[in-house]
Amino acid sequence: MRFVLLILVVLLSGCAQQPAKDDHLYRALGERPGITLIVEGMLLNIARDERIVDRFRKIDIQRLRDKLIEQFCVEAGGPCSYTGDSMAESHKGQNVSRSDFNALVEDLIAAMDAQGIAVPVQNRLIARLAPMRGDVIEK
Length: 139
Known about the structure:
- 63% of the residues lie in helices and 0% in strands.
- The chain is mainly α.
- The protein is globular and about 35 Å long.
- The N and C termini lie far apart (52 Å).
């Protein structure tokens, strides 16, 4: 009988209304159009960044753009799905150093500055992306 009650509770809890997703960061970044401008700005910054531009020469930039938009959208709480590879898989064997990673973050910050994104909002996005650092940097 307890097993039946447990199953019933589990099933009913699945029917309960889920709390609303927090999309404040997504909205603060300008939703998908704003995120798109940030990603495109970051990629343009990378193209001018002698420290890391060579790492992107053989990359399908259009695909990278699309996956970064998806990823930033998801991380910001937007109504998106990320369809790319995991960070560990997509960076495997690329020997990304801390300085490479930091240069990319600087290019992202410059892109957000150019779009007028407030520093606290920038910090919230970076905090959401930061846990991926360990999957990107070669150990």
